[in-house]
Design brief:
The protein has 250 residues and is α/β, with parallel strands linked by helices. The chain has one domain: TIM Barrel (Alpha-Beta Barrel), CATH 3.20.20.60. 42% of the residues lie in helices and 15% in strands. Strands 1-2-3-4-5-6-7-8 form an eight-stranded parallel barrel, surrounded by six helices. α4 runs parallel beside α5. Bound molecules: 3-methyl-2-oxobutanoic acid (KIV).
């Protein structure tokens, strides 16, 4: 099966790159019609859609279902799907899992991590499957790391992040998410690689930004990350509309 090439996906991303998560058809369609350049079916759906504590309970079946329904709403944006935890433990497993997401409609897959993932991303590249890298704070490691910790504060760690970014580009990544990282380190990475960097909690020195949809539209009022800027109040619209409806039928 011929998949979109890394180069063709990269060519569709023009700085400043706008990207956002989406998990279902209507929202994906609205984001696409609004002109967003890249839509991520993120494993953040574990929290935002399924009410889980973190992303570690998300399965490949969840991601396949949400990729299928998002695909129906996306005409123009690049559609990337997350490989969830424990679905890319070996290069062979990464390829098998990624093929299922591509069959569900993804243009590319994303996986978290740096040097430890190089053999897996090379295996994806060899199969012609485009991939987006993800460096910095890695939500799938929240349990091992005992929480969400900003990365790149120490010089050694900052240097490792820059080297990993270069290695991931060399291995064929078409774009790279930089999550919760010291802004100057994200800027260093952006300068060091030629693929687009998409920051979230990583300052304004990236080629573009990526956001979790529910943060942007104000649809998940129970937790908003400190770096998130909320542009709407969908939670209030739902509360009020449903309250008005209940009132009217009384
Ligand atoms: O799953 C997700 O929503 C993500 C974004 C935070 C980039 O990976």
């Amino acid at each position: 099966m011929a998949y979109p090439t890394s180069q063709s996906l990269r060519d569709r991303l023009q700085a400043p790159v706008s990207s956002i998560t989406a998990y279902d058809y209507p929202v994906a369609r609205l984001c696409d019609e609004a002109g967003i350049q890249l839509i991520l079916v993120g494993d953040s759906l574990g929290m935002m859609v399924a009410g889980m504590e973190d992303t570690t309970g998300v399965t490949l079946e969840h991601m396949i279902y949400h990729t299928e329904i998002v695909r129906r709403g996306v005409q123009s944006a690049v559609l990337v799907s997350d490989l969830p935890i424990d679905t890319y433990r070996t290069p062979e497993e990464a390829v098998t899992s990624a093929k299922r997401l591509m069959k569900a409609g993804a243009d590319a897959v994303k996986l978290e991590g740096g040097f430890g993932q190089l053999e897996k991303v090379k295996a994806l590249r060899d199969e012609g499957i485009a991939f987006c890298a993800h460096l910095g704070m890695l939500p799938q490691r929240v349990k091992e790391e005992g929480g969400y910790k900003k990365k790149g504060k120490e010089e050694v760690e900052a240097d490792q992040l820059v080297s990993a970014a270069i290695a991931l580009e060399e291995a064929g990544a078409f774009a790279m998410v930089l999550e919760s990282m010291v802004a100057s380190v994200a800027t260093r990475i952006t300068d060091a690689v030629s693929i687009p960097t998409l920051g979230i909690g990583a300052g304004s020195g990236c080629d573009g930004q990526i956001r979790v949809l529910h943060d942007v539209i104000g649809a998940y009022p129970w937790f908003v990350p400190p770096f998130a800027k909320v542009y709407g109040n969908v939670a209030e619209v739902i509360r009020k509309s449903v309250a008005d409806y209940i009132e009217e039928i009384k």
